[in-house]
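User: Show me an example of a complex going from sequences to structure tokens.

Assistant: Sure. Here are the input components:
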Amino acid sequence: MSYVPHSAEDVRAMLEAVGVAGVEELYDDVPRELLLGRDLAIPPPLAELDVVRLLRSLAQRNEVLTCFAGGGIYDHYVPAAVDQILRRSEFYTAYTPYQPEVAQGSLQVIYEFQTAVCELSGMDVANASIYDGASACAEAVRMAVAVAKDRRHKVLVSATLHPHYCKVLDTYVAGLDLDIRTVPHVGGVTDLGALADSVDGSTAAVVLQNPNFFGALESWEDAAAIVHAHGALLVAVFDPVVSALLKSPGECGADIAVAEGQPLGNAMSFGGPGVGLFAARREYIRQMPGRIAGATVDEDGKRGFVLTLQTREQHIRRERATSNICTNQALNALAATVHVATLGLSGMRQAAELSLRKAHYAFERLIATDGFEPLFPGTPFFKEFAVRGPDPAGVLIAKARARGYLAGVDLGRFGDSALAVEDGLLIAVTEKRTREEIDGLVEALAS
Amino acid sequence: MPSSDVPERALDDLLAAEQRRSVPPNLPEVPEHEVIRHYTALSLLNHHIDRGLYPLGSCTMKYNPKVNEEVARLPGFAQLHPFAPREAVQGAFRLQYELQEYLKEIAGMDAVTLQPAAGAQGEFVGVLLMRAYHTARGAPRSKILIPDSAHGTNPATVALAGYDVVTLKSSPEGLLDVAELKAHLDSEVAGFMVTNPNTYGKFEKRIVDIARLVHEVGGLMYMDGANLNAIMGVTRPGDVGFDILHFNTHKSFSTPHGGGGPGSGPVGVKSHLAEFLPVPVTVKDGDGYRLDWNRPRSIGKVHGFWGQFGLHVRAFAYIRSLGNTGIRETAQAAVLNNAYVTARLQGTYDLPYGRGLHESVFSGASLKRFGVRTHDVAKRLLDFGVHAPTVYFPLTVPEALMIEPTETETREELDRFADAMLQIAREAETNPDLVRSAPHTTPVRRLDEGRAARQPDVRYAPTSSAEAVAAR
């Protein structure tokens, strides 16, 4: 079925008004030899019911497992209110708010989103969002390099940064003459001694994720002291759920803070669409990439919102824009905003605290099991931790899958990355997991 | 939140006090129904496609079918973790693989990546593909040609990827100028970024010659797929001579704009560029499907995971709904709708480059004699319950009004829009103040954008966080 509404009579009347005999005539500028002249080799149209059947059958080939996997995408609880708001077509069928008089809803949501991101990150200003955590991190590095006016070309990236973020960063700086170096980790956390040895006057930025990819806690504060002593910027990659409890990037002296916002109100959806959170210190607002909503007043002095500081952006600045980004993840940002509003401060803190408690319970149960040991003994973590078991991680994941669990992320899959650990299993526990499920996972892994 | 069901332990044992926030985030504490009322009230301030026409040129604001929203929420899609083992996600990989196949066929390309998160990221991938291709042949080359009518993302992307932008003037008919192109073609040209139909809605009649000329100097042809909706099922970019193109699923394939995103920008390429596509690529392997990471000449990775999967589901459902014939009918109806609106407005509004396929670019310059600008026309339209067209773009048309009705609007709705446009033109003459002071019926009136930029207020902060906490 197509969604073309015209009857044969409509088409006839419209063609007559236009003054052509048929629709084909409207394509007169297309050289004849370029016309396809056949049906596309795509299956014929389907009725809605058949589309639902087809998509259901594909969805059923996927297994909905009890999720202990993280690595950047987390199975946190999403309150029912979130999807009810997302389903309002006033939000999801609207365009970018370029006519603010008829887009105050979308614009105020962005303003609220920016506020929530600032509060969670402890930073001064935030944008309307970037595609995802990985591109937010890459844009942050590009911005740090642009902010450093003295042609600094070195960027230091902790080995504990998400391996995909490292890859995306490499891609994003392909056109720049940058020297990207990895700072090694010791016992699962960044080697700050090595960082101090590597950072110098040519360093534009240092990227440090906390909790890091292994789930372990880093110290942004100690890193900031080292980084700032050389005039470089600290890019902090944070977790917005953990941030309700953990000292925020802003409190620790970060200059730019970025995150994957999926854990706030967004389905895991196989890793996309997520929502990249991007915040910075106030002095850098005019160097930020992406859209920003701001408050102002209308002709009658009534408060309202607009997209602002647009002279940074591609549609005005073209090749001199701070970024080529043209969209944000508006609907995902709405989900994050409603999520935070629904849970409130107390709910956000409970989600963080429950994740912390349950992750530690799971860790201790597992470590008490024959053949399991922590990958990094004694290293504090928050909601995610790495273990080594009696079998390769792939075998453990297969065992758990047979009982309906997704045991975690196989660290061996990041074969060419600095943090690939053969046989390492990265396990995440959110507030959604019950004690029964945790015990069930441990039993499955021990079987 | 439920209470904890694991053995109680002191918080200090789990997270040292010095690692915890000293100042909690200043977040609201309101009952759920107040949250719902708040966001419902905000939603009512928005224009949206389910309320009425959204004739934004180059944005393809078509109807977003409801069934696509339902299927994307199936637990077997929405609750998938990207790191689940391959065996547990075969349906998702199959969907991605088949979507790639459909996009290949629609565009006449040999390979497709679904990784890019939006059109602009698709462009970035496209330009990096050029870089990788030329580098593999000796040198990356230094410049990329772009017509003056291009979207702003094109030059921004080229700069992002480290190339110089060379802007080419369009011909008086609003087409690529072959002489102008020839004057700029040399062995430093990495490629030519073209939107086809272009931003005047015109099909580039000489595109085959142009592609040949660019290829003769070793350059690559890139198509910005923003306007693909006009030609899908009718003609194919790959057959025309393009080497690379990006799709906007949120334009051609009806995935919702969401108030500004999420987008999704798959990229299609000819076989000589396939080895450079970003990793991973979803491939068929025997009876199953998997991610292929083993691509040593890949440009790298651009998305945190496997692209905007939720949008892939919606685009897949849409393409299967339309099917082979529905895709062509869609393009033809989009072109017919634009021709009809253009016929109704022509004569009242100037049409410097003539009727386009799916969109036409009018000029409001003739109203300037009454002291009315395109900006005013756009604002006055809001009073009629329709959204304004894209205005002041392309930059080459003074007082531009770029109108794209899309195929899903009825003749009645198109008439309503045309009537409003004609009435505004009359008002400009008889009562210009009414137009200049519009809008009159919207939730707010014209907003002070200068003030917003001069005194940026980009977050709510009644007092400092610390004071807010103390007040609690």
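The lines above are the inputs; the final block is the predicted structure for all two components together. The domain at 80-337 of chain A is CATH 3.40.640.10 (Aspartate Aminotransferase; domain 2).
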